[in-house]
Design a protein that fits this description.
Arc Repressor Mutant, subunit A, mainly alpha
Length: about 210
């Protein structure tokens, strides 16, 4: 893989700064001028890469879901499909998922799908790619006899719905919610036919 271009690096720096401004002041109050001020550059330089705030938001959504994509990339040293799947599910039901991105910015971006068909389509495409990553992990585990489920796509949807619903609900609470996350994770393992102890030392396929 080649080195990133200066353009790619600069665009990522601008999007990161936009995210930081949105996190502090709210997405609706974030602007190209404020991003430029934070970066201590001229606004025209920001506009050289992003003509409008909508362009920035579009790229911010990429940034959000690419960050979440890291959940599905366990260490390369883990080659066993069952172990990799368990680690992915662990990550999904851990604080890693919840702390990857600010909830306020995430839900502000998500709200735009109801006002922009372009953003809705883009959001769906990227979100579908995350579901695809999970489905691939489930399929590989099934092919190696680690799990026995009739429909990989349906299982992937079920897990995603549970994760998304859990974090929407838990975002309303100020508690740590680790116990509730553990219950939701146990439900997923059960539906996949996996019995896992607290430390994942003993795994039995039912």
């Amino acid at each position: 893989m080649g080195r990133k271009s200066i353009k790619e690096i600069r665009r990522k720096e601008i999007v990161t700064a936009f995210y930081q401004v949105a996190k502090k002041e709210g997405l609706e109050n974030a602007s190209i001028a404020k991003v430029a001020k934070k970066m201590e550059i001229n606004p025209s330089l920001v506009m050289h890469y992003f003509n409008t705030k909508e362009d920035l938001i579009y790229e911010l959504i990429n940034f959000i879901l690419e960050s979440y994509g890291n959940i599905y990339k366990p260490k390369k040293s883990i080659t066993d499909p069952k172990e990799r799947l368990i680690l992915i599910i662990d990550n999904l039901f851990s604080r890693k998922w919840n702390t990857l991105f600010d909830d306020g910015v995430f839900f502000s971006c998500f709200a735009l799908v109801f006002r922009s068909k372009k953003i809705k389509a883009h959001y769906k495409a990227l979100h579908d790619s995350l579901r695809g990553m999970l489905a691939d992990a489930l399929k590989e585990a099934k092919e190696h006899g680690a799990i026995n489920i009739p429909d990989v796509a349906a299982a992937s949807d079920m897990i995603f719905i549970l994760v998304e619903g859990a974090y929407y609900y838990l975002s309303l609470s100020d508690d740590n919610n680790e116990d509730k996350l553990a219950i939701y994770k146990k439900e997923v393992f059960m539906r996949l036919g996996l019995t896992v102890d607290a430390n994942h030392k003993e795994i039995v396929t039912s």
